[in-house]
Each structure stands twice: as structure tokens, then as C-alpha cells.
Amino acid sequence: MxxxxxxxxxxxxxxxxxxxxxxxPGARPPGWKMTPAxxxxxxxxxxxxxxxxxxxxxxxxxxRCVITLAGERALLLVGEPGTAKSMLSELLSVAICGTxxxxxxxxxxxxxxxxxxxxxxxxxxxxxxxxxxxxxxxxLAAMRTGRVARIEEITRCLPEVQDGLVSxxxxxxxxxxxxxxxAVHAAPGFCVIATANLRDRxxxxxxAALKRRFNFEAVExxxxxxxxxxxxxxxxxxALIAAGAPETVDQVVVETLVTAFRDLRLGLSREGWSVxxxxxVLSTAEAVAISGSIALAGxxxxxxxxxxxxxPGQLLGAVRKDDPDDGARLLAYWDSVVKRRAAExxxxxxxxxxxRGVLQ
Length: 360
Ligand SMILES: Nc1ncnc2c1ncn2[C@@H]1O[C@H](COP(=O)(O)OP(=O)(O)OP(=O)(O)O)[C@@H](O)[C@H]1O
Ligand SMILES: [Mg+2]
Hints:
CATH architecture of the largest domain: 3-Layer(aba) Sandwich
CATH superfamily of the largest domain: P-loop containing nucleotide triphosphate hydrolases
Distance between the termini: 53 Å
Number of helices: 17
Helix content: 40-55%
Bound molecules: adenosine-5'-triphosphate, magnesium ion
Structural class: alpha/beta
Order of helices and strands: HHHHEHEHEHEHEHHEEEHEHHHHHH
């Protein structure tokens, strides 16, 4: 019997789709569970095969990612926070090798052990270095079994720790000097997908040697407004279901919230009016989170039914997280775009305009 999980990993969540795609005929790179075309279908959806769309964006980006991995090149997904880099890396790895779990979470505290190998110290002290005392990192486990290793936020690791990957990526072999000649050779199918956030320590600090071993792919925010609105609405519906609330999503609230996010992110309203951009990132991921909170508040508290009224406070929270001056930029957005839309007779934006006091 399986117990319920708050966030089931993609291997469980999409088990059915993955099993069907693995049946699709065609040549596949060594060690791959499915063809490269099936991997792309898993991520961007396929009507014929009844595969849901998971990533909203450029199909050619996904194709390039898949080809990089098929050629046994390491892939580095870079972009602003909340552009679905981690989600993409999970989906790619689960489709290619059946697991998304061989993961190292990069941080300032990541050590070389976590990228290469460590020791079981009880055994090490009792018997000295031996193969049995070796503790594989997720990267080493992926090499042995020909699967995908994922390294999240690689640029947050110290450069000298990151460089532990250089020989793994070029020689496809990891030597354990403590065991003499012992080395682990990567099985066919082994590859690495890393993600890096342009806002934290950037890729500029990565060593040239390591950079050269990765294919960089930039993941951009969602270009199409309707697609972003649909995605946020769908994720909001899922949040309501997960919380045991009725799954009715207020489309007007979602559309208004995403429109404000996009205006502020792009520095340009959909009418073409210029907007002073806050320095903070207003990602789709954050729009999903805020839209979910507003919908849940409305579902559980009668006084919060009118979601539009909650937008200004939520936006202010999102905007002010990095720079307090961004609060003033939000107010400037109200005094320009929100005011103009209200003056043109738009009921929803007039309601927002009435809420201006929340921002002061
Ligand atoms: N293009 C997109 N397609 C589908 N979902 C998206 C897209 N952009 C953002 N999302 C939503 O954003 C969520 C968070 O994405 P994720 O955590 O993968 O972002 P990230 O780029 O890794 O962010 P960070 O840099 O902060 O780690 C996803 O689960 C999804 O709901
Ligand atoms: Mg991430």
C-alpha cells in the first residue's frame, strides 16, 4: 500500500505516461528508457499519445536539451528564479533514466564528498579503506548505473568543489586514490543536468574548465500571456484540490494577477505603456504561489471571497522581498497603469485602484 505524499516525485506522479512512452518504438541512446522524441513529448505534451503538457515554452529548447544529453554532453539550465529549471531537470531525468532522485542540492555548504564519494567512517576505522566502506554520492551512483545525476544550483557550490566534476565529465571516470588503482567508469546513459540561478552567484565564477564541459541552455520566463494565465489557473486548481477545497478558480483574479506580474516583469503594460520595473524577480512560480494563497483564502474564509481585494497586499509582499524601494515602484504602477485602466472603465482595475491605500 502506498501512503499519500505531499509532493509525489514525477516518477510516481507520471508513472502511467512514462510507461506508455517507454513502449513507443524507435532507436534510443544507450541506457535510455525511451526515444528522444518520446522524452520531448513527455515534457511538452502529445495529443495523439494523450500526454499532458508540463512545460510551457519553446519546444526547440527542449529538443536542444534532449540532444545535448543524447550526445552525452552535460546540460546546464540557467535562468532567472522560478522559470522551471528544476522542474525541467526533473522531467528530463525521469524520462531518460526512470528516476529524478539522484540529486545533489548545491549550496555554500556543499562538500566534495557530496559530488564524488564519502566514507562510512565506522567501517573505515575498523577495516581501513575498502570498496565496502565507500559511500557513493548521487553522481557516483548515476555513473555506476548509467543514469542521470542532477545538480541543483551548481553555482552556489564553491568553485573548487564544482571542479570535482571536471574529470567526471571529461574522462567519464572517477578515481578513488585511497583504493589504489580503483576507479568507477561511467556506464552508458550516465549524464549530468545542472541548474543555475542568474540571481545568486552567477555562472561567471564557474571555472573555464568546467564551463567548457557543459552545454548552456537559457530558460526564459513564459512569453505568451494566455499560456501563463492558463498555467497559473491550472496550478491554482491543483492547490485547491490538494487543500481539500472546492476546485473553482476565479479566472478574473488569475488573469488580473498574472497581468500585473507580467507588466512589472517586462517593464511594459499590455497596452504598451511603460512601467518602472522593480529590481526583484516576479516569476511565474511566484504568481502560482500567490494565486494559490488567494484562492485558498477565498475557499476557507467568507470575508476573503473577493480575491481582487487581496491582490495589492500579496503583490506588495512579492515586490518588496529584495529591495524596500520596490514598494515605491509598485505604487508608481498603481498611479499610472492601474489608474488609467480604472479611468477607462475597467471594473476590476477600478476595484484595484480603490485598494491603493494598502500599498502606502
Ligand atoms: N515555463 C513553465 N512551464 C511550466 N511551469 C512553470 C513554468 N515556469 C514556471 N513554472 C512553475 O514554476 C514552478 C517552479 O519552478 P522551478 O522551481 O522548477 O523553478 P526554478 O527555475 O528551478 O527556480 P529557482 O531558480 O528559484 O530554483 C513550477 O513547478 C511551475 O509550477
Ligand atoms: Mg530550482
